[in-house]
Structures are given as structure tokens and as C-alpha cells.
Design goal:
The chain has 209 residues and is mainly β. It contains 3 helices and 10 strands, in the order ααββββββαββββ. The strands form 2 sheets. It has a 6-stranded antiparallel sheet with strand order 1-2-3-4-5-6, with no helix packed on it. A hairpin with a 2-residue loop joins strand 3 (79-89) and strand 4. The longest helix is centred in the N-terminal third of the chain and has 12 residues, at 27-38. The chain is globular and about 50 Å long. The N and C termini lie close together (8 Å).
């Protein structure tokens, strides 16, 4: 993940984009979004690398945290745990014990280094909203989102392949539409969606600005 903002490559005003004056959807993009929607994830355990770099940072100032993520689909709401165990900045590498937990109601962040714990109620037991739904929830997942929701919130295009792309992936570039809640949070997003194997239809790399 990166927080470095980028300019929005479109000459149309935000109001026009929101009004649906965009060209028709690329059928290849539509097919990839359909795969994203149809890919059901019940249990997930994966290695995670999270990177943060501000626009004013030098390359050696980029912060990288590494760890694992566990995700389980439960009723009424899925749960997750992220545990970072290492961080690097430039040539310096340090051990880390940082945890982010959501149990379906409470979001908890534990920082062992500073010995701090923060706890926030995300949803009440009778809340019917989906905390993972794009444009609605606090944790918009990069998989399992409805195609219509993505297209309502974003302009989506297929980016040309580059040498830095993960192998056998399709690179989707998403620009938030003007007037959406997503546009208040993000400048742009990039998903690299795997084409084959056990992770087919899943984004294996996500970049956020």
C-alpha cells in the first residue's frame, strides 16, 4: 500500500463522470470484475507486505511492514486478524509485534512497542450494514465485491502490462468517481488480479493512493 497521491488522468469534470457519461465498459474489464465478484473466500491465510511512502519521502524512507493475515467468513460478519512481525525502513530492519483484529463488532489495534491498545466499535449486534462493502464499510475488501458496486464507485480500466507486474496477472486501474464517498478517501487504486491457479480471480497485489 502506498499513500503517494497521483493525478487523475481525465479531462472530464467530476460531475460528468458521476453522471455516467463514460465510454462503455471494456468487455475484458467486465469479465475480470465478474471473476472478482464470483470468487468466494471462506478462509484465507496469507503472507502480507504493507508499504507506505509519502510524496515527500525519499525512496529510503519508505516503510514496509511484513506479517500474515487471517480471514474467516462467519455469520453475520466475517472476522480477520493481521499480525505484523517485521518492519524495514531503508537498510534498517526491526522486529515488530503489531496486531489488528476485527471480531465482527470491535476493531482492536495492539502496539506492543508502545504498549498501547485501541478499541473501536465498528458495528452493533443489530446493525445490518456490511463493514466490508465498498463505498459503505470501514474495511472494503479487494475481493467478493459486487461488480455494480465497483462501477458505481470507480472508473475502471485495464492498465498496460509492465515488467514489474506479478506474473500472470491483469492490472486494473480504478479512479474514484466524483461525488462518491470513495472519492473522499482515495485518489486511485490498482489491483493485480491473478489469472490462474489456486488464487485465480483474487487480487494478489493492491496499491492505494
Amino acid at each position: 500500500q502506498t499513500t503517494a497521491p497521483a493525478s487523475q488522468p481525465s479531462s472530464l469534470p467530476a460531475t460528468s463522470r458521476a453522471a455516467g457519461t463514460q465510454p462503455s465498459l471494456d468487455p475484458v474489464v467486465g469479465e475480470i470484475l465478474t471473476k472478482l465478484e464470483q470468487r468466494v473466500v471462506s478462509n484465507l491465510r496469507a503472507r502480507l507486505a504493507w508499504r507506505q511512502q509519502y510524496l515527500v519521502d525519499q525512496p529510503e524512507d519508505m516503510l514496509t511492514k511484513r506479517g500474515q493475515i487471517w480471514y474467516r467468513k462467519t455469520e453475520p460478519v466475517a472476522k480477520f486478524l493481521i499480525h505484523f512481525t517485521e518492519q524495514t525502513r531503508g537498510e534498517r530492519k526491526d522486529t515488530l509485534d503489531e496486531r489488528h483484529l476485527f471480531d465482527g463488532r470491535w476493531y482492536v489495534e495492539l502496539q506492543s512497542r508502545t504498549k498501547t491498545l485501541t478499541r473501536r466499535e465498528v458495528r452493533r449486534p443489530d446493525d445490518r450494514s456490511d463493514p466490508y462493502r465498498i463505498g459503505q464499510g470501514m474495511f472494503p475488501l479487494p475481493f467478493g465485491q459486487k461488480k455494480e458496486d465497483i462501477l458505481r464507485e470507480f472508473e475502471v480500466s485495464l492498465a498496460p502490462p509492465t515488467a514489474d507486474d506479478p506474473p500472470a496477472t491483469d492490472h486494473l486501474h480504478l479512479l474514484p468517481r466524483g461525488g462518491t464517498s470513495t472519492g473522499q478517501t482515495y485518489k486511485e487504486l490498482d489491483f493485480w488480479v491473478d489469472r490462474d491457479g489456486a488464487t485465480a480471480g483474487l487480487p494478489i497485489k493492491v496499491r492505494v493512493a
